[in-house]
Amino acid sequence: MDLLDHPLTQSSNHFIKPSLTSKLKPPTTTAIVTPEMELLPSSPPPTTTTTEDHRRPPPRQPKRFIKNQIPDSITTDSALNAAMAALPSNYNFEIHKSIWRIRSTSARRVALQFPEGLLMYSLTISDIITAFAPSVDRCFVLGDVTYGACCVDDLSAAALGADLLIHYGHSCLVPVDNTVIPCLYVFVDIKIDVKRLTETVRLNFDPFDHSIAKKQLILAGTIQFATAIRAAKPELEKLGFRVLVPQSKPLSAGEILGCTAPRVPVSQFDDGEGEVVLVFVADGRFHLEAFMIANPRIKAFRYDPYVGTLFLEEYDHKGMKECRMNAILKSRDAKNWGIVLGTLGRQGNPRILDRLEKKMGEKGLSWTIVLMSELSPARIGLFGDSVDAWIQIACPRLSIDWGDAFVKPLLTPFEAEIALGDHPGWWERKSVALDDSRSNCDDGVDCCGKTEGCCGNDNGGGLKGVDENGGDYPMDYYAQDGGEWNSCYSKKPSRPSHRNTVLK
Questions:
Q1: What pTM value is reported for the model?
Q2: CA distance 375 to 18
Q3: Domain 69-190 has CATH 3.40.50.11840
Q4: How big is the CA angle at 189 (ends 196 and 262), to the nearest 5 degrees?
Q5: By the 8 A CB rule, do 263 and 472 touch?
Q6: Which CATH superfamily includes the segment(s) 14-24+192-315?
Q7: How far apart are CA 338 and CA 406, in angstroms?
Q8: How many H helices and E strands in the chain?
Q9: Residue-wise over 398-425: b if at least 16 C-beta within 10 A, else e?
Q10: CA atoms of 495 and 269, how far apart (whole Å)
Q11: Region Disordered: start and end of each range (predicted)?
């Protein structure tokens, strides 16, 4: 749901003054020089030739062109460009690349998948592909609901005999080497007025206006505005802001999903001279809420690029954590479990299912596996009291946002780890940490010679890294450095990223 706000998410917005600049600026192109573009030496140094050297293949020359570079015959095709004029000029559907991919692979049956906000353009794109890709016999649109990149439906496309699936509007959470047929991801980059974005931020957070607290900015958004975010960062730095564009791999820098958001170490970013705030570029707040859950101590503002307005967004962290804690505690006494494996696209991950089944077997519990495309309280309620608690392997936000609507506890894989006793709850981590800290210092005040407390917060008490609502709730469902409960397809050891480093 990158392009539309979540239908059941309510927002309490506070209006912030917009900028007066409103003209759409054309994108700029930056020339990039790569090592492959360097000139070869005109006269190589003499070498001694031996019989063995003659058997060796000649040294490989530097590549001067990308193998799959789109030929000029496609990019300069006047008929194709005229047909593309029927699409919004500020939406990049990457038609040229799609046509070249189809021609180069001679795909005959092409499946197109869109989120609901882009379905209105599906038939136009289908007509263009059919007209300008001679190898295509059939181009069809997958009509099932598509909430995000987790819903990429290569399985249905393969069942329909498709040679290629083109998925629009989301980043590639499911790697192309994991899909059963070739898949092309089109992010649908949207051009916005970057000048208006930076001016709106300056008017509200002017770093040189002493009447306004100095702001250190975290800049993020949905994948459609990733290009605009990268363009806005240097412009905001010219205005005197310190700007961080965070990244949670495998997502792009600055990209946030409704289930995956990086945790920003504010202590490393804050220079102590101002407030750290988030400016999130999106037309809805569903994905923003993931960042707010993962970073409860960072004030969040949402910039709507379509109206050029900045909104202060708030989230009930205490209420959410209390609801999830109660569901976990209630499910700890469950004997009969139900595990829902989502079948909407690739939402359900068999690896998580295998992990949960192993844990259930080790603890002697009874469980039932249910395959379901979309969960609802009414459908889950049909199972009655035969199931004491549920675990859903689909979307964590189903439990976080609507868990109270279900009669029985509906847990995420992360919450299931807590309920089964394999991982401490966030409220339990706080209690243990506080007990340990108090045993090593004088109540967290004036300890280690520091007035703020080496194990306390700025006021001398509490615990660093733990908020007043009982610790942090991770939003790492697709993060490479996330917990073992998550659904990332390419788990890698975490390492520092230069993108998350702010140079003074």
A1: 0.77
A2: 40
A3: yes
A4: 85
A5: yes
A6: Diphthamide synthesis DPH1/DPH2 domain 2 (3.40.50.11850)
A7: 13
A8: 16, 16
A9: bbbbebeebebbbbbbbbbbbbbeebeb
A10: 17
A11: 1-65
| Strand ranges inside 234-308, DSSP E | 242-244, 275-281, 299-304
| CATH class belonging to 318-419 | alpha beta
Rounded Cα–Cα distance for residues 414 and 325 (Å): 12
Residues 6+ positions from 49 with CB-CB distance below 8 Å = none
Q: Please tell me whether residue 259 adopts helix, strand or coil conformation.
A: coil
Locus of tokens 């993108």: 499
**If DSSP codes are grouped into helix, strand and coil, which group holds residue 184?**
strand
Q: What is the dihedral of CA 429, 434, 440, 443, to 10 degrees?
A: 170
| CB contact at 8 A, 141 and 123 | yes
CA 26 to chain CA centroid, Å, is: 26
Q: Tokens standing for 219?
A: 């800049």
Separation of alpha carbons 123 and 127, rounded Å:
6
Is it true that 69-190 and 318-419 share their CATH fold?
yes
Instruction: Enumerate the domain spans of the chain.
Output: 14-24+192-315, 69-190, 318-419
Tell me how far apart the alpha carbons of residues 325 and 121 are, in angstroms, rounded to a whole number: 43
Q: Report the pLDDT value the prediction gives residue 55, as an integer from 0 to 100.
A: 63
The Cα angle at residue 480 between residues 283 and 342, in degrees rounded to 5: 70
Contact partners, residue 332, CB within 8 Å, separation at least 6: 419, 421
Provide the β-strand partners of residue 242.
Answer: 216
pLDDT for 210: 58
235 near 228, Cβ under 8 Å?
A: no
pLDDT means over runs of 10, the chain (504 residues): 43 42 38 37 46 56 55 94 96 97 95 96 97 95 91 94 96 88 95 96 78 78 96 94 92 94 80 81 96 95 96 96 96 95 93 95 95 94 95 96 95 96 85 43 36 36 39 87 83 50 39
Kindly write down the DSSP assignment for every residue of 355-384, as one continuous string. Answer: HHHHHHHHTT-EEEEEEESS--HHHHHTTG
Token pair 């990019």 is found at: 75
For residues 244 and 219, the answer to whether their CB atoms sit within 8 Å is yes
Specify the pLDDT at position 388.
Answer: 96
Secondary structure class of 183 (helix, strand, coil): strand
Residue 262 has, within 13 A of its CA and on its CB side, a CA count of 26
Would you put residue 101 in left (φ > 0), alpha (ψ -120 to 50) or beta?
A: alpha
What is the Cα 356 distance to its own chain's centre?
A: 25
